Amino acid sequence: MNKKIFVASLAVVAAFVAEPIQAQTAKGAITPQVLAEIRASQPNSPADKALRNAVVANGMTFVNSAKTDFPDAQFSHRVESKGITDQQSSGRCWLFTGMNVLRARMITDNNMGKFFFSHNYSFFWDQLEKANLFLQGIIDTRNKPMDDKMVEWLFKNPIGDGGQYTGVSENLMKYGLVPSEVMPETRNSNNTSALNRILSKVLRQGGMRLRQAAEQGAGEAKLDTQKKEILKRVYRILVLNLGEPPTEFTWSMRDASGKIVSTEKYTPQSFYQKFVGEDLREDYVMVMNDPSRPYYKLYEIDYDRHTYDGKNWTYVNVPIEDIKQMAIASIRDSTMMYYSCDVGKELDRTRGVLAMDNNDYASLLGEDFTMTKKERIQTFDSGSSHAMTLMAVDLDAAGKPTKWMVENSWGADNGAQGYLIMTDEWFDAYTFRLVVKKKYVPAKVLDILKTKPTRLPAWDPMFADEQ
User: Fold this and answer.
1) Matching CATH topology for 93-275 and 279-463?
2) I need a labelling partner for 326 at 20 to 30 A (CA). Which of 108, 261, 285, 439 fits?
3) Which CATH class name applies to 93-275?
4) Which residues form the active site (predicted)?
């Protein structure tokens, strides 16, 4: 190589290599001086070394071994229920929660023993409806570019097994209910990840083909025909994995002693009307405690529904004390509620206790976590992650709650025999949503339902599906 060219090449390489080195010493970077200061700050006593060894070996998932004041399972007011459900490896907590509310009432009203609705039956229709919601959304946005925010959101979220209360209300009122023995769980209803992956692939591919057909001039009628062909494939996949939903069945109802008291033929809709018979859309109100947004306002989440012809999730944002009063009124009247929270925070899963002092990170790490609920929401540190059935409250002599209890859907071997007990302080910090019958809702809140809602985008991080 020519010497001048070689020297010039070295100069180019030197300049290229120097570029990242210069960036590393720019303002705000971790320089050698900053790193030396950080290293020098680390304690290194024998006690610190022992602590480090303990944490390295055992982790820090549950560190408050000195805690002894766990809340007990005695409650002044409790709605009775029989049996614990288990969603297993699925994100169907929203469906189990809604059905637990309804089955508790059915058991009480009919003096029955343990009874369960078929979650698999309702999940089948949920998946088909979500597939249609996605595909019709693709048709509706066919003239928007691929990098449009709504189009991106649709393709990122074609389907899933998570959800919220509108999935319960729309599904059950449209398709009815059946007992668990009529359409029992399957391997893939209890373990939904593989089914979700396949359906997502089918729908994303179908969505692209619909957009391509639209680009080639296909009108709505042709796109609708193409959509139906995709839905037929989705239906077949669901049948293979979940079984085919019955259109009619014969079922015998038993009393608490196990004696058969009636045997009748039903359709899913007639079964729903006989044993539930409520308007789950109009007779219930969803309230939220979100201090990052103004209280006593009505909000609607765009595209947050389970069926295309359904209603977007709409809620009233209220202070936590208002939620407590509605919840207490409902429990006093022996009525369970759909409830959701950030269940993973400060959870002692073995004991089934949610309390603010379950994890003593201050003693272990020297870290105090002092963010408010509003700050945790704003920084994505907390949000509603799981739905359960609120069923009990313990009131002191002044009528103030000291602890609460929910019926969970993680099986009877999880938590306190399938239940979770939460302190009132934890309830304040990590409760988000409650669905309550209108008769327990103050007139002030009901009046807000008549106002025009503020519409929030589908991708708002506060409104991820509960699982």
Assistant:
1) yes
2) 108
3) alpha beta
4) 93, 386, 408
Which of the residues 171, 358, 359, 386 is marked catalytic?
A: 386
- Decide if 408 is catalytic: yes
Q: Which of 1-10, 220-229, 243-252, 328-337 bottoms out in mean pLDDT, i.e. has the lowest?
A: 1-10
- Confirm if 388 and 408 have CB atoms less than 8 A apart: yes
CA 82 to chain centre: 24
| Residue of 58, 77, 93, 143 marked catalytic | 93
Beta bridge partners of 63: none
Range 181-193 average pLDDT? 97
pLDDT of residue 12: 47
Residue extents of the structural domains in the chain: 93-275, 279-463
Q: Are 186 and 241 in contact (CB under 8 A)?
A: yes
Calpha distance 322→307 (Å, rounded) = 30
Q: How does residue 16 score in pLDDT terms, banded at 50, 70 and 90?
A: very low
pLDDT of residue 49: 87
pLDDT at 101 over 80: yes
- Under the banding of pLDDT at 50, 70 and 90, the label for residue 64 is confident
Question: Is 93 in the active site?
Answer: yes
Task: Give the CATH number of domain 279-463; options: 3.90.70.10, 1.10.3720.10, 3.30.460.10, 3.30.70.1060.
Answer: 3.90.70.10
Q: Which residues contact 359 (CB under 8 A, 6 or more apart)?
A: 60, 62, 63, 64, 346
Phi-psi region of 122 (alpha: psi -120 to 50; beta: other; left: phi over 0): alpha
Which among 95, 118, 99, 96 has a CA at the least distance from the CA of 107?
99
Dist CA 192 CA 175 (whole Å): 21
Alpha-carbon separation of residue 73 from 92, 201, 415 (angstroms): 26, 46, 12
Asked if 384 contacts 431 with a C-beta cutoff of 8 angstroms, the reply is no
pTM: 0.90
Question: Mean pLDDT throughout 430-436?
Answer: 97
For residue 1, what pLDDT is reported?
52
